[in-house]
Design a protein that fits this description.
This protein is mainly alpha-helical. It folds into 2 domains: 77 residues, no CATH class; 86 residues, Serine Threonine Protein Phosphatase 5, Tetratricopeptide repeat, CATH 1.25.40. 67% of the residues lie in helices and 0% in strands. Helix 4 runs antiparallel to helix 5 and helix 7 runs parallel beside helix 9. The chain is elongated.
Length: 184
């Protein structure tokens, strides 16, 4: 067997945030070094994956501040997965001071690209008025988009908030959802 095969699979995975570094065996020192090198060279997928590795303690010591650093570098390049994860870090105060407005900023960037998890979280922020003014219409809008992608929790949340909304508010949120297009 080619001893570089696992590393080649890892390289393919680290170049995309949709392929999170995850394998049965722990990452080797060489694999971590390759991912770090690519991340330091500005590869957004590698930066995202290095952030995941730090957040989960995979191949490196768990370090939320380092995870935030690498997520931010990838997020600044438009990586939706990194933007979502950075939003989670701000929402939970992991590696950074808790800041709902900053969480909303990063959720919105990912949600605008069509990230369903970011959409459900952004809907929650609007429903609770955390980091943004409370808005049932905006909550419904984001949950409607996430529900359209099959996120069961979004369907449930939408059904709950719908009971508190007027027909006009529901129609407005549905109209906005129908007109919405992801930004890439």
């Amino acid at each position: 067997m080619n001893r570089y095969a696992p590393l080649l699979l890892l390289l393919a995975a680290c170049c995309s945030s949709t392929a999170v570094v995850a394998q049965d065996a722990p990452l080797t020192t060489d694999q971590v070094a390759v991912i770090r090198q690519l991340a330091e060279q500005g590869n957004a997928g590698a930066q995202y994956n290095l952030g995941v590795m730090y957040a989960n303690g995979e191949g490196v010591a768990e370090n939320d501040a380092e995870a935030v650093k690498w997520y931010r570098l990838a997020a600044d390049q438009g990586d939706a997965g990194a933007q979502f994860n950075l939003g989670v870090m701000y929402a939970n105060g992991e590696g950074v001071a808790e800041n709902d407005a900053e969480a909303v900023k990063w959720y919105r960037l990912a949600a605008d690209q069509g990230d369903a998890e970011a959409q459900i979280n952004l809907g929650y922020m609007y429903a609770k008025g955390e980091g943004v003014p409370e808005s049932q219409v905006d909550a419904y809008f984001w949950w409607n988009l996430a529900a359209a992608q099959g996120i069961a929790g979004a369907k449930t949340n939408k059904a709950i908030i719908e009971k508190q909304m007027t027909r006009e508010q529901i129609a407005e949120a549905q109209r906005r959802s129908a007109a919405w297009k992801p930004k890439k």
